[in-house]
Amino acid sequence: METTIYKNIDCLVTNSGLIGTKGTRPNEDSLGIISKGAVVFSKKKGVLWAGRSSAIPRSLRIGKTVDCKGLVAYPGFVDSHTHPAFDGDRAKEFSMRMEGATYQEIAHAGGGILSTVNKTQKASAPKLADLITKRLESAHRYGVRLMEAKSGYGLEKHAELRSLNAIQAASKKFRNVKIRATCLAAHAIPVEYKENRDTWMNEICEEILPTVARRSLADYVDVFCDEGYYTIDESRKIFTTAKKLGFHLKMHGDELANTGSAELAAEMGALSVDHLLKVSDSGVSALASSSTVATLLPGTALFLREPPAPARKLIDSGACVALASDFNPGSCTTQNLPFIATLAALHLGMTCPEIIAGITYNGARALGMAGTYGALAEGYMGEPVFAEGDHPAAIYYRLAQGALPNPL
Ligand code: NIG
Ligand code: FE
C-alpha cells in the first residue's frame, strides 16, 4: 500500500470542528488547527491518521516520510460547481460585454449559453473527454480533489448523454480528482423549443432524466431557475421528477433576478442553491432554516461585473455557505479555486475560517459528500493540499498563485 507520512507541518488544518456540524458559522475552532502536525495518507484508503507529529502511532510509521516544515496543509479542496463539458470559447462575447453589451442581451441575440451549445453539439465524444480530462488536470493543480461536473451544453438528448459519458470517461482517465456528475439539461431553452417549451419540458422529464438514471450517468440534477431561463413552476416540475428518479437536487438560482429560487430549493430539500446574487431576505431565511447549502461563486460576479452575493447576511443568519468556481466559457473562466477564495475575502467579506470551510467541508456538504471529503481525519479521502507559510490564509493570500505542488 502506498502510504505517505507528512510530518512537521507548521499549520495542519484538519476541519475537525466542522465534522458533524452543519458547516454553519465557521470559526477558528472549526478548523481544528494542529501546529507541528502530521498526516498519514494512503492513496487507496485516504487519511489513516492525523494529529501531532510527536504522536504518530508506531504501527503507522512505515512509508515515505516528507518533512513539511514551513508549510500549511489543508484537506483536499472541493469545487462543487463546474461546467467542464464544453467546446469552444466566448472571447468575442467577453470583449462585447466590456464594450457595453450585457450578458442577457448577448444571450437574446443567440449568443451566450446557446453559442457554446452549437459548438458542443458538434464535438465528438473523444474530443469532449479529452477537453474534460485536461480540465481535471488543471483543477488538480489548483488543489481540487473532489469536483462536481455538469452537462448542459448538449441541450438535446444525445448531446446531453454524450457530455455525461465524456465526464465519466475523463474521470476514468484522470483519477486524482474524484468526479460527481450533474445533469443540467435544463440549462437554457433550446432555440427550436422557444415557442414550445412544454414539449422540451416533457423531453427532459420523460426522456432525458429517466435515461440518465437508468444508465447511472449522473448523481445530481440541476436547473437554471432564473429570469429568461426556467420558471419556478418548470423548476418544481423537473425537481419532482428528478427526486422520484433518485437524483439529488442542485439549483442555479437568483443570479440574474430574484425569482424565489432559494425558497424553492430549500422547500424541495436541494443539496444546494448556487449564485444567489439577487437572493431576497425571505430566501436568506429559508436557507438559514434548511440544510440546503448556499453556494457562492464570486468569480462569476467579478466576470459579469455584478455586485457580490450577500455572504455576510447568509452566514450571519445561519446558512451554510460554500464557495465554488462555476468554471464555464461564458460567466467565469477560471478553475483557480484559491483565487475564488481570495475573491471571497476581498469582495464577500468572509473570514478565514469561513473561506477555508467554503472550499473544503462546506463544498463537500453541497455535494452530499461531507462524510468522505473536506476534512483531514481518519477515513477521509482526498490528498492534502499545501501552501507556503504557517497561517491558514496562506493559500489565498498569494493572489492568483494557486496551490504548491505536493512536496513529496
Ligand atoms: O452558472 N448561470 C448559468 N450557467 C452558467 C453560465 C453558462 C454560460 O454562460 O455559458 C453559470 O454562470
Ligand atoms: Fe453555473
Describe the structure.
- The protein is α/β, with parallel strands linked by helices and 408 residues long.
- It folds into two domains: 3-75 and 375-397, Urease, subunit C, domain 1, CATH 2.30.40.10; 78-365, Alpha-Beta Barrel (TIM Barrel).
- 36% of the residues lie in helices and 19% in strands.
- The chain is built from 15 helices and 15 strands.
- It has helices at residues 91-98, 103-108, 113-122, 125-141, 157-173, 197-214, 232-244, 261-267, 281-288, 298-303, 311-316, 337-347, 352-359, 361-366, 394-397, and strands spanning 3-9, 11-12, 37-42, 46-52, 64-67, 71-74, 77-79, 144-150, 178-186, 220-225, 248-253, 272-275, 293-296, 321-323, 385-388.
- The strands form three sheets. The chain has an eight-stranded parallel β-sheet. A four-stranded mixed β-sheet has the order 4-3-1-5, with no helix packed on it.
- α5 (157-173) runs parallel beside α6.
- 55% of the residues are buried.
- The mean pLDDT is 97.
- Residues 112-113, 116, 224, 252, 255, 300, 326, 328-331 line the site of N-(iminomethyl)-L-glutamic acid.
